[in-house]
Amino acid sequence: PGQTVALVGHSGSGKSTIVGLVERFYNPISGSITLDGHELKDINLRHLRDTIGLVSQEPVLFNTTIKQNILYGTRKDQAPPTDKDIEEACRLANAHDFISKLPQKYNTLVGEKGALLSGGQKQRIAIARALIKNPSILLLDEATSALDTESERIVQAALDNAATGRSTIVIAHRLSTIMDADVIYVMDKGVVLESGTHESLMTSGGVYAEL
After folding, report:
1. Strand partners, 195
2. Which terminus of the chain has a lower count of CB atoms within 10 Å, N or C?
3. Where are the alpha helices (DSSP H) in 57-118?
4. Which residue from 179, 44, 63 is spatially nearest to 114, judged by alpha carbons?
């Protein structure tokens, strides 16, 4: 609990399958998965998904306001978030400043699939949406891989803020995003080839050092 775990590997290595297993879109054929010390299949499905805040590579935004897009992330049993709650989530997501400069601020329409926002802005809205339900676990699925260098820097800072005090699973495309992870698992064809910290894996000179 409270650790950041990263999964890296080439395309087809099994990283995305792990995301599906953690979200319980399907169950493992053999073996078991534990999350924060609990057997995954024994956790109520709604409770599990309420516990997880997911930020993916291509965030889905709806053709409504920024505020409403964030509110779509709330749990069914959650008290309706206040404007202050929404602003706090956006501050953690490094989104409040750019939202405040928009003519309609939080009531700004984002367009179809968020077309009126940049990639980095959409991703920060998605982070705020993941945080509004105060999840105990963050699942970051290549959350910065589609961004340019400057946008990645801003979004990565937001992700670092969001991960503080939470168990975090990072599916990584760029090694720069996982160097501070507590443990990194290097995968290929669904198998873990090696694991350790960034420093230990670089020192050992294995597969990770060649990625």
Report:
1. 185
2. N
3. 66-71, 83-92, 96-100
4. 63
Helix (H, G, I), strand (E, B) or coil at 210: helix
The structure's pTM equals 0.86
Cβ contact 201:186 at 8 Å:
yes
Contact present, 135 and 74 (Cβ < 8 Å): no
- β-sheet bridge partners, residue 35: 38
Model pLDDT, residue 72: 94
Q: How far apart are the first and last CA of the chain?
A: 28
Write out the two tokens for 51. 């516990």
Question: What percent of the chain has a predicted confidence (pLDDT) above 70?
Answer: 99
Distance of CA 97 to the CA centre of its chain: 21
- The rounded distance, in Å, linking the Cα atoms of 156 and 143 is 9
More confident residue, 193 or 58: 193
Q: Confidence band (pLDDT; 50, 70, 90) for 66?
A: very high
Question: pLDDT-based confidence at 143, cuts 50/70/90?
Answer: confident
d(CA 135, CA 54): 9
Q: Which helix (H) or strand (E) holds 161?
A: helix 149-163
**pLDDT at residue 64, as a whole number:** 95
Which residues contact residue 163 at a Cβ distance below 8 angstroms, ignoring those fewer than 6 apart?
4, 138
pLDDT at 110 over 90: yes
